[in-house]
Each structure stands twice: as C-alpha cells, then as structure tokens.
C-alpha cells in the first residue's frame, strides 16, 4: 500500500478546503462527493495546477501540511514551504518534463535501466528519504479501523521491533552448521520476518505472530517481557494485520544497512510514538515528552561520559536524545550509562523496545515499579538526571514514606508530588552532577508546606536555573510549564554560588498544528547558550566562548537575598526585567502635554459641531 506525496498533502487538508480546490479544477458537484473521492480526483492535477492549489493556502496551513507529511523544517516563506512539500530533498525542481498521464511516475534519467514494476511489499530505498515515516503512518492509521489508538500502538510498534530483530539478528543455526555472526539477536527460523510475511494472508497469522514473539523471547533473555503477544486478540482482523505486515515491509531491509538500521527504524518508531501521543491526546502525555522539550533538556545538560538517570522514563525519549547528542559530540556507544525506572507496565515495555530498536543498552529495572515506593536504584548517584514526571500527581505515598531519607527538606503533601520528585532527584544526584526536570508552573509560586520546602532547597543553593516555557507544548496539558535546573556544585566553570539564573522563554515557539507548539532549533540554541554562558561551561566545537550578561526581557541572575525579599517565589516573570525599548515609560510632562492638547482639540471640535447643529435647527421651518 503506497500513498503518493500528493495524496499525503491532500489528506492533511480539511474537507472544506478540498471542496474549494475541487471547484478550481472544475470538478462537478464537489460538495456531494466523499472525502476519498475528492482526494483521488485532485491527485490527477498537473504540476502547475497542484502548485496553484498550495499557493492558495496560508502559511499556517502550509506548516501544518509540512508537519503532517513528516518534514521537520516547517519554517520559511510560502514559496519555500511549497518547494519542500513538492521536492522533499529541498532543492529547486528542474523544469517539468513533457506532460504525462496524470499520476504517472517521472521517467528515469537518460540511459538508466528501466525500473521493475512496484509490487506491494517491495522494499524501496526511496522510502528512506525525508517524509517516508508520514507515508507509513498514514497507511497504518487507515488500517487501524475502529481500534483505540492506545491499543493499536502496541500492535504496530511490536511489529516494528519484530522486523528489526528479525532482519538485524542472524537466524539460529542448525546442529553442525557454520556459526553465524555474533552481532544481533537470536532469531528462530520460524520467527524471521520473511517467513511471517509469507503467511500474511493466513487466517492463523495472529497465532503465528504470537508464537514468533514467544520464541524470540525464549532465546533472548534481554527481550523477555517486552515483546507483545496480543495478535490473537478479538477484534484484530487477520486481513488487516496482513496488510500491516506488507506495509511495514516497505521499510528498507535492515539487515543490509549495518549500524544505519538503528537510525532507520528508530526514526520510524519515534515518528509513530509522536503520532500515537497526538491521537491519544491527554493520555499520550503519560508515555511521551515532545522532542523539542527533550532536546532542550539534553542541550542544557550536554551529557558526556558518565551515568544518566530518568526516574520517570516514559518511552525512553530522554535516553535516545541524550545518546544521540553524546555521539554527535564525539562520544562512543556504551560510554554513557543509562539507568531508568517506569511504573506503568505498558510504557516500561515501550521504553525497552525504544532502546532495543536503537541498539542502546540500559538498566530500566527487572520490572516496572514506582520510583517512590520501590526505588530500584537506591544507591545510584548519577552525573545527569533528566525527567518529565507526571504533573501535580496525587496520592503518591507520602504517609508510607514519612521517614524516608530522600525527603530531607520536608515531606510534601500527598495531594501533590512535585517536590517529592525534586527531592528524589536531588537524592540521586552525584556531587558534581546536573539535573533538569519539567514541572508545572505552580511549583514556582505555591505556598504552605511546599513553599517551605522550596525555600529550604533554594537556601541550600541547589537550584541553578529556572526556565519559563510557553503553553501548549505538551499533549497532556495546555498549561505553561517550567524547567528546574539543579546542581550540587556551583563552582565548576563560573562561580554561581548564591545565585539562580532566571530565563523567560514564554514568547518562544511556533505552532505545529492548531493546538500544539514546538520550540525552534534556534530557540533551543539560544536558551542553551545562555545557560552554558551562565555556568561558564567550555564552548562546544565550532562555537566561541561567551561571557554571561543579563538580557532585559530574557534572562537575569538573581541572588538569594533578592529571592528572600520575594518570599522565594521563583517565577522568572517576577524577576526578569522587561526589555527597555518595549517597556520604557514616557516622560509624564511630555505625555500630559500631548493628552491636554488632544483634549482641547476635541473640546473645540465638539463646540463647532454644537454650533453647526444649532444653525441647522434654526433653519428648520415649522408648519
């Protein structure tokens, strides 16, 4: 099942917009046609007609379409966005060839051998280009039928992992056969992807898939408990399951790509997680942190060799981006030790699958468990801690943990776990460690017992920075959130003792769609650059060392006496001074003189109008 670029673009548009475009193409009675018919008819448009369609869209609509089809750079003027949509490599097109039949593929270059006909399920390297994840998602979502997204994600992501394991790992050898390569997983012959694909039309496909998952787990202890065996469940149609296998088979053969296999399938997995989080809405936040927020945390902490810990790791996004950052800056796989914990069983399996697909080793515990009630890494002291714990969680177990040494600054109320997470993270932070966590904005201003805990933590000089973020970044909530940056040693680099960096980033970000916002790459770099300058951290390769200075309207270093005057309220809006140019108050005398002149002019005008009215009335003849 293959969806063209034009189909993907049209599928991103609302039906009224499709009807409008159909009228431009003079399609009869477009309002009476079904959405699928409109898309099929509009796909017959020639190049200049289709480009004309896109030129009718607003910039916001074009950005939404770019995001829908998988283009990661959704900024620029309308012409640039249209070029990216129609030509996914980002280059300007060559002049269009002579007109061909609508929908026909472009002819091959001169002298090139004729391409064999495309069959369903045939692998294509073109699918590895930018945007192919969106094509896969669109097709997979159509196959979902009426299944709930929360259930369907395990069906799809489990098959993705099965494909990866099967094609990267060598098959088990028969007795006496030549030993296979040692890399990869052990895969029984009956569980290999090509064997299962041959059974795609069998009514017993669900049984065969469950058997394959069980066989792989039996041969690979590291995979036990994470492969879903759910394919015989009622309501999961065998025919649609077979279609899904053929669809995922379009991902290029991973066994032939070596290390790149981790990138290809990891990219699909991450894109699918994003789409499932969006489809689940509020519940999607339970397992997913938006990439721009994760990217900001990783850029702020800039992890190098050592241990990275996430006590509420969700689907493992913090680990994936940390490993990517580490390798992009000269690190090697395995030098960054990954430790995590997750209480939700299905989310814990998603995290282990996410790491396995990327070839990343990590200790997420032998089973899912609650970080408060059963701390599986009690002796851990991590160099880096990143976390996006549940916002304002209730009933976290305060009564049972009243004497727990982790809560040395005070036991938070059972009605809100925010400062339980802060103290849990401080407890696990190494003497020179750094931590960053996402919390609701209420943590900055709340009073009572929680306010007292905040005061004690600030007076202990453990808070290194606070960043106010814009609203609508998360799928689980539309409220604005903040980042807490914690450090036990504030003398490394620049001496920051007795001060906290406040950054106001509420004005940053661009709309991904009608309801969700994302931080731009340049904004991530700006925020991280301010924090690195504040810390006096060594400049990254290719960048000059910057000296920290307060920026009106953006950031300010605030000392502890000032915070005490403000009752230890940490909201950056309370402390960051507004930009002078935008907020400078005009001179009162000058302002009053102008207002007085304007008022007198209005009084004179009113008097003139009164005279005109009186004169007009005098001329009226009364019979």
Automatic annotation (TrEMBL):
It catalyses: a 2'-deoxyadenosine in DNA + S-adenosyl-L-methionine = an N(6)-methyl-2'-deoxyadenosine in DNA + S-adenosyl-L-homocysteine + H(+). GO terms for molecular function: methyltransferase activity. Residues 261-581 form the DNA methylase adenine-specific domain. The keyword Transferase applies. Gene3D superfamilies: 1.20.1260.30, Vaccinia Virus protein VP39 (3.40.50.150). It comes from the Bacteria. One of its GO terms (biological process) is methylation. Keywords: Methyltransferase, Restriction system, S-adenosyl-L-methionine, Transferase. The keyword Transferase applies. Residues 133-234 form the N6 adenine-specific DNA methyltransferase N-terminal domain. Belongs to the N(4)/N(6)-methyltransferase family. This is site-specific DNA-methyltransferase (adenine-specific). It comes from Nannocystis bainbridge. The lineage of its organism: Bacteria, Pseudomonadati, Myxococcota, Polyangia, Nannocystales.
């Amino acid at each position: 099942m293959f969806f063209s670029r034009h189909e993907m673009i049209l599928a991103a548009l609302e039906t009224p917009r499709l009807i409008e475009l159909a009228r431009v193409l003079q399609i009869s009675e477009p309002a009476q046609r079904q959405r699928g018919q409109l898309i099929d008819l509009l796909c017959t448009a020639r190049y200049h007609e289709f480009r004309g369609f896109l030129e009718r869209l607003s910039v916001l609509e074009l950005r939404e379409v770019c995001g829908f089809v998988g283009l990661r750079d959704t900024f620029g003027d309308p012409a640039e966005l249209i070029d990216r949509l129609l030509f996914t490599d980002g280059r300007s097109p060559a002049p269009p060839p002579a007109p061909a039949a609508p929908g026909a593929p472009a002819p091959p270059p001169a002298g090139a051998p004729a391409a064999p006909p495309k069959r369903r399920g045939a692998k294509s390297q073109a699918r590895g280009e930018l945007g192919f994840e969106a094509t896969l998602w669109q097709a997979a979502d159509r196959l979902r039928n009426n299944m709930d997204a929360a259930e369907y994600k395990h069906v799809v992501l489990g098959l993705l992992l099965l494909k990866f394991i099967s094609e990267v790992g060598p098959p088990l050898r028969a007795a006496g056969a030549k030993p296979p390569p040692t890399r990869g997983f052990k895969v029984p012959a009956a569980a290999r992807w090509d064997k299962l694909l041959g059974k795609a039309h069998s009514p017993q496909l669900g049984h065969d898939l469950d058997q394959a998952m069980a066989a792989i787990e039996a041969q690979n202890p590291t995979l036990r408990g994470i492969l879903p065996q759910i394919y015989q469940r009622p309501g999961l149609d065998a025919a649609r399951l077979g279609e899904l296998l053929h669809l995922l088979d379009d991902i290029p053969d991973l066994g032939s790509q070596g290390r790149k296999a981790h990138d290809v399938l990891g990219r699909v997995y991450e894109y699918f997680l994003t789409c499932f989080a969006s489809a689940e809405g509020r519940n999607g936040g339970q397992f997913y942190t938006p990439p721009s927020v994760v990217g900001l945390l990783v850029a702020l902490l800039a992890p190098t060799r050592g241990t990275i810990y996430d006590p509420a790791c969700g689907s493992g996004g913090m680990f994936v981006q940390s490993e990517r950052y580490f390798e992009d800056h000269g690190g090697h796989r395995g030098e960054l030790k990954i430790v995590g914990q997750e209480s939700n069983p299905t989310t814990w399996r998603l995290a282990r699958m996410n790491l396995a697909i990327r070839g990343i080793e990590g200790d997420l515990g032998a089973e899912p468990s609650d970080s408060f009630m059963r701390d599986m890494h009690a002796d851990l002291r991590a160099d880096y801690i990143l976390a996006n714990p549940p916002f304002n969680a209730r009933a976290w177990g305060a009564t049972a943990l009243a004497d727990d040494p982790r809560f040395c600054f005070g036991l938070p109320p059972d009605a809100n776990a925010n400062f339980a997470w802060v103290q849990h993270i401080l407890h696990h932070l190494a003497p020179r460690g750094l931590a960053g966590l996402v919390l609701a904005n209420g943590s900055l201003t709340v009073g009572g017992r929680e306010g007292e805990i905040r005061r004690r933590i600030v007076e202990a000089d453990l808070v290194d920075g606070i960043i106010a973020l814009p609203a609508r970044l998360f799928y689980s909530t539309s409220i604005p959130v903040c980042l807490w940056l914690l450090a036990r040693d504030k003398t490394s680099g620049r001496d920051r003792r007795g001060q906290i960096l406040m950054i106001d980033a509420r004005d940053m970000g661009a709309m991904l769609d009608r309801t969700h916002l994302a931080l731009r790459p340049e904004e991530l770099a700006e925020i991280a650059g301010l924090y690195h300058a504040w810390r006096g951290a060594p400049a990254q390769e290719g960048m000059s060392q910057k000296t920290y200075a307060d920026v009106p309207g953006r950031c300010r270093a605030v000392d502890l006496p000032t915070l005490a005057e403000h009752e230890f309220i940490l909201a950056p809006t309370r402390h960051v001074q507004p930009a002078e140019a935008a907020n400078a108050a005009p001179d009162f005398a000058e302002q009053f003189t102008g207002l007085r002149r304007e008022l007198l002019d209005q009084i004179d005008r009113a008097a003139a109008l009164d005279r005109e009215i009186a004169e007009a009335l005098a001329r009226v003849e009364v019979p």
